[in-house]
């Protein structure tokens, strides 16, 4: 059974961020790139099992990430704004 594409993103890092968010909500997800070229700037699909595609779309519609959260999820590093004293 083929997994269903729920999102296509312009780079691998963004696809992994989205897949991680979906997985965090209990939905299996995988990232598939469109080529064997090396590098992060490759078009990538996020796929889920067909029976869970509707839930994945709902989760994506509910997600609201800040730029700092997206950077942290993609790199594991906190941005400069997060390290500043308040």
| Proportion of beta-strand residues | 15-25%
Give the strand order, joined by hyphens, for the main sheet: 1-3-2
Number of strands: 3
Radius of gyration: 14 Å
The main sheet comes to: 3 strands, antiparallel
Flag low-confidence runs.
82-86
Corresponding CATH architecture: 2-Layer Sandwich
- How many helical stretches? 4
Structural class: alpha+beta
State the CATH class: Alpha Beta
Order of helices and strands: EHEEHHH
What number of domains?
A: 1
The dominant shape is globular
State the end-to-end CA separation: 51 Å
Mean pLDDT, to the nearest integer, reads 80
CATH topology: Alpha-Beta Plaits
Describe this structure in words.
- There is one protein chain.
- The chain is an alpha+beta fold.
- The protein has one domain (4-74): Alpha-Beta Plaits (2-Layer Sandwich).
- It has 4 helices and 3 strands; from the N terminus they run βαββααα.
- Helix 1 crosses helix 3.
- The relative contact order is 0.23.
- Mean pLDDT is 80; it is low at 82-86.
Structure at a glance:
This protein is α+β, with helices and mostly antiparallel strands.
Characteristic terms for this protein:
86 residues; Alpha-Beta Plaits; 4 helices; 3 strands
